[in-house]
Design goal:
The complex is a heterodimer of chains A (240) and B (222). With 240 residues, chain A is mostly helical. Chain A contains eight helices and no strands. Chain A has one domain. The longest helix of chain A is centred in the last third of the chain and has 37 residues. Chain A is flat and about 55 Å long. Chain B contains nine helices and no strands. Chain B is an all-alpha fold and 222 residues long. Chain B starts with a helix and ends with a helix. Chain B is globular. At the A-B interface, helix 4 and helix 5 of A face helix 6, helix 7, helix 8 and helix 9 of B.
Chain lengths: 240, 222
Amino acid sequence: MRTDRALRALGVAALAGMVATVWLGLFVTPNAVGFADGTVRLLYIHPPLAWVMFIAYGMATLSSLLYLWPRTRHRRFDRLAGASAEVGVIFTGLTLVTGSIWGRTTWGVWWAWDPLLTTTALLFVLYLGYLAIRNVPGDPETVARRSAIAGLVAFLDVPIVFFAVSWWRSLHQGPTIDLATRHSYVHGSMAWTLLLGFVSFTLTYVWLMAHRYRLAALKDLEDDQGLETALAERWAEAVR
Amino acid sequence: MLRDALLVCGKDLRIELRSKIGINQVAPFAAAVLLLFGLALGPSRPALQAAAAGLFWVAVLLSVVLAVQRSFAVESADAARDGLRLSGLDPAGIFLGKGAAIVVQLLVLEALLTAGVALLFGARLSGGLVLFAACVSASIGLAAVGVLYGVLSSGARVKETLLPLLLLPVAAPVLLGATKAWDDALAGDPTHAGVWLSLLAVFAVLYVAVGTVAFGPLLEDA
């Protein structure tokens, strides 16, 4: 159907963007001065990963709110929240891993108690908890409401954690390595590659989330109408 | 609402007084945690003094998990939750009452643990007002978020493992704020403590507000 075709086109675009980012990032862009050999190339994936993490959690929170709001209460927002948070957790994990590798080559340590890093790590655990509570079985409406509230409670904690950790560092240890300033020296082919990275990672996020959403919708359908209907749909898809 | 809160708080505290689980199990657990921290860090007094505030609050945090589990185990026995729902008490009142009961228990526990860190780790208890203010505001925040997650996970079969996973990361800013306020007070220089106390207060107000609104629907579902 039309949505299938759109989804496939999205997947192809995301893949093409990824390939182009890898090619530009590894072979075309110059190595920057002041970075250990080649590590600047992490620039093209690390910030885009973090960016996707933010939009994924933003989307999960927005969907939770829409679900809780009586006028817009619909199971699709619950599915959307779950799908987005799941993809968000994956991207948080990848952000932490790439950040850690970068930190090792730049600062000489795998981990620094930087506000951003610490907040990201806590975000990872917070949303793992959210996914755990989504998996607690129960009546669909109950699970959806419980998950939406848990999602909001987790999200509310994020700014508090960030401020707490920032104060903790600034009050007691002096300013830390500022992750933001480094990115302002990006220009020319590097800037274009970074932009492409942002676009293709965002496309990948949308593609993954759409698939995850569809899977959740099929799962709900299976629960609602039994296995038969879902199987028939799946067969119909394969034939087409 | 406040009358309902007082009723529920009184009920929970009476149960705790009579069952003596808090005194017989939670307090000894917290004491054991302190002793184990001492063993892990070694007998060096300066190291223990430097770490005293953090160890105190980690011990409190671990005990909160037990207190919350206890608070909802009481409700799940003998279908007490159905009774609570049928009682016609305001859900917000039930939330505040259960939270208040946990706050009282935590304050007693914190008093015992304070004596513990002073005895075992040789912490000098200066800045008593800051110490006390941090205990009160941190306990309110922890109890609020604890009761909220307690009811969220109370219906689940995996609640024993789910609750710590949910509660401990959310409580991270409380651990940080309370530890820093205590650090400053114990070091005799509470100039920065105000920032941390206000952080604890913001956390407490936020989660009490969220819990008051969200507890009703969650109790229906549990």
